[in-house]
Task: structure prediction
Amino acid sequence: ATAQNKIVVNTDLGKETISKDIYGHFSEHLGHCIYGGYWVGEDSNIPNTNGIRNDVVEALKEIGIPNLRWPGGCFADEYHWMDGIGPRDERPTMINTHWGGVTEDNSFGTHEFLELCSQLDCEPVICGNLGSGTPQEMSQWVEYLNSGNVSPMTDLRKANGREEPWGVKYWGVGNESWGCGGNMTAQFYADNMRRFSTFTKNYGENRLYKVACGPNVDDYNWMETLMKNGNPGGSFQGISLHYYTVCHTWRQKGSATQFDEKEYFTTMDKTLFMDELLRNHITIMDKYDPRNRVGLIVDEWGNWHDVEPGTNPGFLYQQNTLRDAMVASVNLDLFNKYCRRVKMANIAQTVNVLQAMILTQDGEMVKTPSYYVFKMYKVHHDATLLPSDVTCDNYTYEEESVPALSTTASKAADGKIHITISNLDPHNSKEVLCEMRGTEKLSFVTGSIVTGDKINSYNDFGKKEEVSLKEFKDVKVNGNSLTVKMPAKSVVMVELN
Ligand code: AHR
Result:
């Protein structure tokens, strides 16, 4: 037992809400994310509803998927939405130049995506094409989606079988415009974003929440330029940030499953850089937007490993281990911590691509360790963040160290308190004392844990799950404090009343 591992939770000082949109997802026309992942078509033997896999929808509903970003990614700035509407067998094809050079037949388009969101009961987040499209094309897409008036676009929508407007709220104005979205300078993008945004209109009651393309990692100049010259709050309501955790280099990122402790440590260290990034970007946002009108939208994040051996390098198919689960919890804790500004985040990319929740192989499906962290963290959706202070051991590898613990505490609408704790140390369990200031007496309701035998334990087709969500009871409550016995390399949730 040590006072070295102590979390002080201020149960009476909560004022910010952890938006459930922080637990959002991203799905691109890339590899087998859309095709094979969600979309199998109506004639498939795989059980589906209107062409969309039932097993995948059911699994994502279980983790309370709040929103889904689509169609890219880099794909978004080459996508022409009109190619993806109308009778499927008449839709033109295109080459997916970014992802494997495969032929995209456009069988999954606007109507299919919105059907998917309706089955998932989640908010659509659509990223428009600023890079190779025109303001007119973007404007017409929004009109097609959201207008209830009589117009050429609404007539077209009705002819394609949809009478009522969908009322899409979240709208990306280009993706990675500093890179695959057009290689623009910050000022050039700021001007273009203002122009495109002018022509994406509000229809009826629906108010668009426009997300400007924000910085690549630590490009603080990009953030500064957009916040200064991009008309924040007018031309855009949210600004994105992309940061992927790459263990080694972009050329050679490292295996998803065959890694040693040094690589595990490096991954934790690099993922924790998100803290500094959020802090610094938020400082710039606070300077230009002291009233906190603009949200920071981390709409691409997660581990990016080398593809599985033998798979198409352009398909970004990677396995997912306990290491990925730890990366998920650490990042989610950081988004929660900065929830005053972080209003949405989207892990890349839900099914079969990068740090996925789900892997599919024909009619089979695997839930990844990351999936179980998202399932556990449902307790924080739309809950009040309880400010907490952590004092903890370091997890040291050779000469370097990171804090061993990461945490989030929140209070739900029904008054229940949830605390999630991750112990990054792969060797040592930790006895963690949680002092719940502002309460007198608490009782333990339930607990759960995600862990595995090894740092690279993972779930695979045709074998028993190695990592899942299990019951956890190693908690002792004494008045307003509790002791949680955290196993090494684990994520734990404790519910208190
Ligand atoms: O998620 C894969 C790619 O990563 C996206 O298409 C792009 O936006 C980012 O570079």
About this structure: The domain at 6-10+386-496 is CATH 2.60.40.1180 (Immunoglobulin-like).
